[in-house]
Design brief:
Blueprint (H helix, E strand, L loop, with lengths): L2 E8 L3 E10 L2 E11 L3 E3 L8 E3 L2 H15 L5 E5 L4 E4 L28 H4 L8 H8 L3 H5 L2 E4 H10 L4 E2 H4 L14 H6 L10 E2 L4 E5 L2 E4 L5 H7 L8 E6 L3 E7 L6 H5 L3 E4 L5 E7 L3 H9 L5 H9 L27 H9 L7 H27 L5 E5 L6 H11 L3 E3 L4 H13 L7 H11 L3 E3 L6 H9 L3
Parallel strand pairs: 1-6, 9-10, 13-17, 17-18
Antiparallel strand pairs: 1-2, 2-3, 4-5, 7-8, 11-12, 13-14, 14-16, 15-16, 18-19
Helix pairs in contact: 8-15, 11-13, 13-14
The protein binds beta-L-fructofuranose.
């Protein structure tokens, strides 16, 4: 028995609707619609920076158009980046455009709040939903809101009229108890936030409602949770890197690690599909490269990567975890992404773009090495292979550098891991495929292109580079 399913997958720079035919050992994909996701800055006359918003209605239009192009499907699943939300009033109307997690409104807030790790197990990222809510607490919107809906839940609400908070994404808010997997009312009260805004938690695999007669199914609506479902691993001794705008580097565990060392290393315990824990760290990912490309007017990437591959390795490295790289580039002066990178890496003025790209990729591999090593130590696990999934799996230079840096084989692919994880959870929910994560992953392994990269022999150069960035 096979069926066709539609995955809506929203990334930080574009969205797509992907149909997948699954069942009977088959898993084939078709990207039926791609649309841009272009944040909008407004209100620059009120304060110098204004506020960076998601253009949520344009995203919704992309979703609806994509579903139209998808044609008849068994069901629909939606995933997106985490932490961001929309507020709706008691009539169901959206109160303002959701704010982008890279907006500066949360600057400094995390440092003023008590440590939440013991309860929610999350790494402190300045943009966690809890800090966004603390920043928004005084606004009229917050006061009159009836419900908070995370981005995929908001889109699902518009499609079906049903509200809820999908678990994997709710786990990124900072307000969910990592042990009970329910909202932590004591934490919410203690922070003086409104618990009544938070809808009941629903779990991947449950039916949300219908859109024009087609079931909409809760999937791992946090994109990283869906990507981890599609990691084509056998056994347990693997680390994964879900590499796109961010690199999410970590392990799949049965229970959270909440030790002081884990907290100090800023490792997160996010909720995964089938009650797993995604024990990982956010590494800056391809974002600095994407921003440079944008600033350079989108030059030919394959050509640039080829040139970068011929540059001397590890000549210039930066600590990509430095928060200075978090905000979008302005495209001008020293605050451009290129300017920030040049300054921190100490690049000579005549260094060209290929040198800069090599610096970014070496630095990313170095940061990924560090996260894999730390995850392994903090969780007390053996790692014999690194699975690299997502758009980054297309980047051969990055995959090879990651294998070299980690001193481990890298299995790269699938590129569309997030959409595949989304589709698999739907297909299982309607009974077209069955089994646990192991069975779902076997299907990915058997049907998708996966490329193996062997590590180079010497670790010395990487260890020295790590010491140079002080990590
Ligand atoms: C990746 C991702 C990360 C999350 C970041 C912000 O797309 O979802 O997991 O930390 O975006 O939401």
């Amino acid at each position: 028995m096979t069926g066709v399913f539609a995955a809506v997958d929203l990334g930080a720079s574009s969205g797509r609707v992907v149909t997948g035919r699954l069942g009977g050992g088959e898993l084939t994909l078709d990207v039926v619609h791609r649309f841009p996701n272009e944040p909008v800055r407004v209100g620059v006359t009120r304060n110098s920076e204004g506020t960076l918003h998601w253009d949520i209605l344009s995203l919704y239009r992309g979703v609806v158009e994509g579903l139209r192009k998808a044609g008849p499907v068994r069901s629909i699943g939606i995933d997106s980046w985490a932490v961001d939300y929309g507020l709706i009033d008691s009539s169901g109307a959206l109160l303002g455009n959701p704010v982008h997690y890279r907006d500066a409104r949360t600057d400094g807030i995390a440092g003023r709040v008590k440590d939440l790790y013991e309860v929610c197990g999350l790494q402190t990222l300045p943009f966690n939903t809890v800090y966004q809510l603390l920043a928004a607490r005084e606004t009229p919107q917050y006061e009159v809101a009836a419900r908070l809906l995370m981005i995929p839940d908001l889109l699902a609400y518009w499609l079906t009229g049903e509200i809820g908070a999908e678990y994997t994404n709710a786990s990124t808010t900072g307000l969910l108890d990592v042990r009970t997997r329910e909202w932590s009312s004591s934490l919410i009260d203690e922070l003086g936030l409104r618990g009544d805004l938070l809808p009941p938690v629903r779990h991947p695999g449950s039916v949300i409602g219908t859109y024009r007669g087609t079931p909409v199914i809760a999937v791992g609506s946090h994109d990283t949770a869906s990507a981890v479902v599609a990691v084509p691993a056998t056994g347990r001794d693997f680390a994964y890197i879900s590499c796109g705008t961010w690199s999410l580097v970590g392990l799949e565990l049965d229970r959270p690690v909440l030790s002081a060392a884990s907290r100090a290393a800023n490792f997160t315990n996010e909720g995964g599909v089938d009650s797993t824990i995604r024990y990982l760290r956010n590494v800056m990912g391809l974002w600095p490269l994407q921003e440079c490309l944008r600033e350079w007017g989108s030059p030919d990437l394959p050509q640039l990567l080829e040139a970068a591959a011929s540059e001397p390795g590890l000549a210039f490295v930066v600590d990509l975890d430095d928060p200075v790289f978090m905000p979008p580039g302005t495209g001008a002066g020293s605050t451009s992404m290129e300017g920030r990178l040049r300054k921190l890496a100490g690049l000579p003025a005549d260094a060209g773009r290929a040198t800069l790209v090599r610096c970014i990729l070496d630095s990313l591999a170095l940061a990924q090495r560090r996260a894999v090593r730390q995850a392994r130590e903090l969780a007390g696990r053996t790692v014999s292979v690194v699975h690299l999934v997502g758009g980054g799996a297309r980047n051969e230079l990055l995959c090879q550098l990651t294998a070299d840096a980690c001193g481990l084989p890298v299995l790269a692919g699938p590129v569309e891991a997030t959409a595949i994880g989304n589709l698999l959870v739907q297909a299982r929910a309607v009974g077209v495929v069955d089994g646990g994560l192991g069975a779902l992953r076997a299907l990915v392994r058997e049907t998708q292109r996966i490329v193996r990269y062997e590590p180079g022999v010497s670790d010395e150069a990487w260890a020295a580079a790590a010491a140079r960035v002080g990590r």
